[in-house]
Specification:
Helix content: 25-40%
CATH class of the largest domain: Mainly Beta
Largest sheet: 9 strands, antiparallel
Structural class: alpha+beta
Oligomer: single chain
């Protein structure tokens, strides 16, 4: 009976170590898959096919992207969260948090909702195009 119990414990330990290793590997893969060229500061230029101005927002929204996180501003409220990507060209903004100051930004809600539904991206001519399941949603230029 002792031998069977010892065998069961040994097998359990081996499998628990393996599953921890697999979980760590998948986390590292997710972080590495966010391309270096997207890891920078971006300023919103276009929202749902229309150019944005400071009349639409208190100031133009900005996003700073890093390997697995993002931060920025909606033009009024600070935002932050995590980035996730399965493959190049795919991205999600997760664990989204935002301040809740009252603002005169007419399009802040639309901007936030589009970020939350983003599923893809492409970069051409120093411009970042975000898209969701319905197509292109926002265009950003490189920030400073």
């Amino acid at each position: 009976m002792k031998k069977i119990l010892m065998l069961f414990i040994a097998v359990s330990l081996v499998y628990s170590c393996k599953s921890t290793k697999d979980a760590n590997a998948s986390t590292n893969t997710a972080e590495k898959s966010i391309e270096k060229k997207i890891q920078q500061s971006w300023v919103l230029e276009n929202l749902n096919g229309k150019p944005v101005t400071e009349k639409d927002f208190s100031s133009l929204p900005k996003i700073e992207m890093k390997a697995s996180t993002f931060s920025g501003s909606t033009g009024c409220n600070a935002i932050k969260g995590n980035l996730f990507s399965k493959d190049a060209g795919q991205i999600q903004f997760l664990n989204f948090t935002s301040e809740t100051k009252k603002c005169e930004a007419k399009k802040e809600g639309e901007f936030v909702q589009l970020l939350k539904t983003t599923s893809g991206y492409s970069i051409e001519n120093n411009k970042l195009l975000l898209s969701n399941q319905f197509g292109p949603t926002m265009l950003f230029k490189k920030g400073k």
